[in-house]
Each structure stands twice: as structure tokens, then as C-alpha cells.
User: What shape does this take?
Amino acid sequence: MIAVLLAASEDIRMRPLTYTRPKAMLPLANKPILEHLVVQARDAGITEYLIVVGFNGETIRQYFGNGEKWGISIEYISQRQQLGTADAVLRTRERIGNRFLVINGDIVARAKDIKQLAGSNNIAVLLTEVDNAADLGVVEEDKGVIRHIQEKKSDTSSRIVSTGVYLFTDAIFGAIDSIPVSPRGAYDLTDALQQLIDSGSQVESRNTDYWFNPDYPWDLLKANSLFMSDFEIKSSARIEDNVSIRGNVSIGEETYIESGVRIEGPVVIGNRCRIGSCSQIRSGTSIGDNCQISSFVRIENSIILNNSRISSHVYVSDSIIGETCFLGPGTKIAPMRFDAGNVRVANINTGLQRLGAIFGDNVHTGLNVCVDAGTLIGNGTILGPGAISKGVLLPNSRIL
Assistant: This one.
């Protein structure tokens, strides 16, 4: 059986992180969301994949190649215009057989749930229960059969939603051909499924209590440590004397840890990094490849992407730092509000009392810069010495 992975979307809600990469390539524990999904599907016995790419799709092609690294076979197809999930599936029509899986590439599902769905006799959808179903595919079911499914229904009382994991037959293509464009300007798989139900086809449901589907950048922080497991220090990592390492910690190849460093897991540090003397890397932190962390730095519960440099006496907490960023000496990111209320980002209540900043790629800060809790900083922004930033900074902003 082949699995079609839908990985063409950017998702503007995940900006600034998705200015330069598709949502499916956002990192968890130093691996893209899509890689976590591929591993789970492979462990469910799926070895053939067709990945639908679109926005910055070359990043996916370069990362996964033909799939040999994971012991699978991968081919690609392009969706040049983002016209919805049904349109993406329709583009695979000539490349797959009668029964196939379709999985949203920006979610993570468990191997056992994927395997269970793949074993269904009819078209089937993996469902889960959530607290707020307003922006999801809401489902009404009865004794394992789906009666109604609708995308992004804001006035629903149902908490049962589609996870974006489907088992289809080629009947789905005829249903897609017959659906109109939605009010959102897209062709949705939920509409095609409802078309099948209305025409008398049986669409089965399977249920799970596990599903990861990030809506906003801070969702990555909440999940990051959950994906850190079964770690080991690589033999080529160089660790000086007087280094304290506790808990679940992975240190990549050719990484150098200087004296006086304290690491408290779960933590992942990538390849070819350097962690300067007397720095602290606290739990929930992942540091990508080729990162340079200077002396007397404290990083906690944060995600640092590849090729970033952090100067001495910097404090980073509950934040995401994009690729190729430079944080100047003394830069501080506040992780909380003074009143200890929930942090708001662009007028969105995150529900979190601790949330620092989200940096896009290639952001530079000067000496003693202060960044307020809940700040979004667009790609290429420069914050000059002593600058104080808050709110939303568009790409290539200058505060000097």
C-alpha cells in the first residue's frame, strides 16, 4: 500500500517560521514534523510514499531524497497552487492504485493507529476528541460509521474531529470531481467525503487518543520535549572535564562541550555545535546543527534552529530562534508578563503563562537587546544595541 503525504502548505499561522519552509518541515527534537510522521508510517509497515509538495517544496525533496535513509521509497508530485487537500489528492490520480492512505504531512500519528486504519475494508477516517473543534474537520459518527463531516465549522458542539489520516479507494476521485470550491477558495477532502456519504457509500471511523497537530509556533514548544526519547551521546562528541549532564540528553557528532557547562535533559544538541564554558542548557531545549553558543549563556525550554550563533551572557527562555540568527552579547528574552497573566501574541491568547519570542530566520540583535514576552520577529530583522522590542515585527524591520 502506498501512502500519500500532503506537504504542500505554508500555513500563515506558523509565521515567521514558515516564511522560508513548509509547515511540515518545522522541527521537533531536531527533526522535521514530516520525518516523525514518516517514521511512524514506516513502523506501521508502509514502505512506498508519494509526497505532494508545493510551497518551498525543494526543502522536502533535498531532505528526504528517495527515502533510502529511512528504508523506504519516496516519489514526489507538485501542487503549484494551494487549492486545498482534495486538489492535492486529485493530482495523484495517475500514480496510485485502488486502496491507499492519505495523511496530512504536518501532523504526527502513531504507527499502531496508522496500521489499524490501513487494515480497514472500506474508506475510513482516523478520528480524535479535542477541546476546541472550531477550526478542524468536525465529525458526527454512529457505531463506527461517519454520518456527517464538515470543515472548519465554527458553531459546532461536537468535539470529534478528523485527524487528517484517511484510507481511500479510487472512489474518492469521482467525489472530488463533483465538489465545488469551498467559501475559503479551496477544494476540501471533507467535502468529498461528505459527497461519498450522501451518495450511499459507507465511511468508517477509527479512533485514537494520540494526535499532534500544531496550529501556532508555540505549539512546537509544548511538544518539543515529548519527542525527545531514547537519546545517546555520540562517540565523536568532545566533552571537557567538569561538565554536568543529567537526564535524557543527545549530543551530536563533532560537537564540543566546554568546561563548566550544565545540561539538564531532555535536551538535543545537533552536530558540529560548540557550547561555551559555564553555560546552562535546561530541559525542553533542542539546538540544531552548526550552532555556536558562547560562554555564560542560559537557554531553557527553547528551540534553536541550524546555523545560529548566541553570544555571551544571553538569556533565552520559552522561545524559538530561527536559522542563521545572531544574538548579540547580553540579549535577554522575557518569558513572562509582569502580571503573570497569559501571554498574548498578535492579540491571540496563547493560554500560556510562559512564552518568550518567536524569531524568524537571519534575525540579528546587538548588545544588550531586550525582547518582550510574546514578540514575533520577522526574517531579516535587525535590533540595534540597547533596543527594546515587543509585538509583531515584520520581515526586514530595523530598530536602531
Residues 229-399 form a domain with the UDP N-Acetylglucosamine Acyltransferase; domain 1 fold (CATH 2.160.10.10). The radius of gyration is 22 Å. The longest strand covers residues 160-169. The CA atoms of residues 384 and 400 lie 4 Å apart.
